[in-house]
Here is the input.
Amino acid sequence: MFKIGLDAMGGDFAPEQPVLGAYEAVEKFNDIEILLYGQADEIKKYMKEPHERIKIVHCEEVIPMDIKDPAMAIRKYKDSSMVRACKDAKAGEIDAVVSAGATGALIAAGTLVVKRLKEVERPALAPVMPTIKANKYTILCDAGATSEAKPQYLYQNAKIASIYAKEVLHIQNPSVALLNIGTEEGKGTDLQKEAFKLIQADSSINFVGNMEGKTMISGEVDIIVADGYSGNIALKAVEGTSKSVFSLLKEELMSSTRGKVGALILKPIFSRIKKRMDASEVGGAMLLGVTAPVIKAHGSSDSLAIMNAIRQAREAVSQDVVNKISQALRENVE
Amino acid sequence: MFKIGLDAMGGDFAPEQPVLGAYEAVEKFNDIEILLYGQADEIKKYMKEPHERIKIVHCEEVIPMDIKDPAMAIRKYKDSSMVRACKDAKAGEIDAVVSAGATGALIAAGTLVVKRLKEVERPALAPVMPTIKANKYTILCDAGATSEAKPQYLYQNAKIASIYAKEVLHIQNPSVALLNIGTEEGKGTDLQKEAFKLIQADSSINFVGNMEGKTMISGEVDIIVADGYSGNIALKAVEGTSKSVFSLLKEELMSSTRGKVGALILKPIFSRIKKRMDASEVGGAMLLGVTAPVIKAHGSSDSLAIMNAIRQAREAVSQDVVNKISQALRENVE
Here is the structure.
């Protein structure tokens, strides 16, 4: 039985959607037990009937979604659902943590409470991005856990994201590209130039070279490696642009009768596109490089997104991803 | 009479579209003279009738669009249309340069041939991005001229982009945001933290704080300041995503009869959206911080895009932007 700790208070629609997602998950997988961390009274409001594999771990506090200083929040809210789940993961009481709470807080809790694997220089946040190719997803690593990067971190990102892609997403021989300002070797700042060499020198990585921002969602590669600063900028640019284009489309369609008629006809097609580009179909972002799987579900997660994040956590646990990462990097050092 | 040097050999559709764009420009503006730099025989093929304000400056060479090492290309192709135009701009023979040639080569030619203003630490490439707000554009500065940045460069980018926005695009009191991984002060790497303080301390800049990648094209600010590395990544992520979303839309529409019917009805609306999001309606990217206006038109520029880039160059010359930039930074030093 895999024990998954779910931060029931994290996310824009908590605790309702996390609780509903927990029910969906236990129905789907009979080898998991879910511990709901959070305010018991609040959680109970949304629990249909008792379930033998869903338990509540009462916590008094909640980390707000808009915290400014993540590291301080982790110290301040010691009895919060997020910190408590991370503590229990570190102690081995649970096997993985899923939270739709504040990203910065979860990265801090993952790093400071679950703690970094000693072989990993810096943890990295690895979201799975939808692409325009059907059923093709691309992992971005790092999307913002470590802003100030060194070449060695980028190299490790390539290494650990490859293991994650192989074990959890079942991608054989995942291809890896380095986010850069041009496709030729020798592009970018010293950081990218050095990282390029390190990644290329490791034959266990299926490295295909540099990749520009313009092909982020074209589905050409399985993994895009970046420092946390530019990875975060790029990911948000992609998400924001996609959202902006659809809102512009909606605005233009709704401003005329012709537009409204066309929109009505195309409704099922627009829904399909929306579904294809929807991150919640894929699951959450995994914080790689800490001692237990920590999954960040999108802040706006509905129960489906939570269920998918739990599925991901279950997969990471059953495939023993954490030990495989630690072992791969240990071999590297020896 | 303003003398604009046009690289007739630069761009995917050269020399045809540059030559046609030159004709459109002289018809629109009677105070400009255009010098077409390039292979005379090739250029003449696309010249309708002779025009007293369009002249050819014959150059033997052409810098290829796919050069790998821009600085070396500039030294190697001394008699290329791009380098010759830049030399003449430096010598004061012409007032500005417009080229749709390779971006890296034009940045190198601008920096090494037209040369940096002594008050400017590093030149910056400033494209004008369409946004989802009607008739609202946002300048990105720097989009890739200087990958390895220092806080002082970002501060200067804020300063010179403000002058450009005011003088050439006629935006009163342009608002400036710093591209970052979060909106709160204190976010980002040391580079952004230091740059934030420098920009904030200058009361001549209408600084509104940090901005995330997700609002790049929402049209909230007039200027986004970035280092060349992350600016380039973000710009290409925006352009690539917008293109990807439209190609996904097209694919889905064309895959069913329902889609085709809807597409037919919505054709005029889709055209309008495309036009709104089309960068060629706006003009090119200006290389700020060199001794004469240098405008980079998009590689895929048609005659309209070239004409708009010429319009921009004319405006930059007539408003004496180069001297205003140099003066503003000089006052700063004193």
About this structure: Chain B is about 45% helix and 15% strand. Residues 27 and 53 of chain B are 10 Å apart (CA to CA). The longest helix of chain B spans residues 228-254. Chain B has a mean pLDDT of 94.
